Amino acid sequence: MIKEEHEVAVLGAPQSPAPVTTTVINIRSDTALPDHIVWSLFNTIFMNWCCLGFVAFAYSVKSRDRKMVGDITGAQSYASTAKCLNIWALVLGIFMTVGSIVVLVFIYVAVYRTALEIMKNRGY
Predict the structure, then answer these.
(1) Which of 32, 59, 98, 122 sits at a 20 to 30 Å CA gap from 105?
(2) Distance CA 92, CA 43 (A)
(3) pTM higher than 0.85 for the full model?
(4) Which superkingdom is the protein from (predicted)?
């Protein structure tokens, strides 16, 4: 027991004149990584032409799952795919909606003209 006390006393404080340095490791938490789930949900409900909105929603959920597990690369990959699908769903949805309205207007005008022609021929 006396020998152990002597060893501690002999060792004492560190003899090196070098300054003590600390190392800080920053672990980046990518909670700001967008998974586009709200945009995908919007496209699923309102702009779901060819089911692109639903597929984008599935990829958004996969991206969120990968982010929760800590797989940032996988989450970015799924988020990128969801973003691309959302863009296509939105563009296709806008074109198809505007196209449908234009077709309906042309059909309405054609039916209206035909009805006027029939009424004119019958003497009304």
Answers:
(1) 122
(2) 11
(3) no
(4) Eukaryota
Helices (H), the chain: 2-11, 37-46, 52-69, 72-122
Identify whether the C-beta of residue 63 lies closer than 8 Å to the C-beta of residue 78.
yes
Q: Are 49 and 92 in contact (CB under 8 A)?
A: yes
State the residue for tokens 């586009």.
36
Confidence (pLDDT) at 32: 76
Rounded distance between C-alpha atoms, residue 50 and residue 91, angstroms: 12
Q: Give yes or no for a contact between 26 and 51, defined as CB atoms under 8 angstroms apart.
A: no
Q: Looking up tokens 């563009």, which residue turns up?
A: 91
Q: Please, what's the largest Cα pairwise distance for the chain?
A: 129
Residue positions counted in the chain = 124
CA distance 10 to 28: 44
Amino acid at 31: T
* Burial category of 56 from C-beta neighbours within 10 Å (exposed 0-12, middle 13-18, buried 19 and up): buried
pLDDT at 2: 53
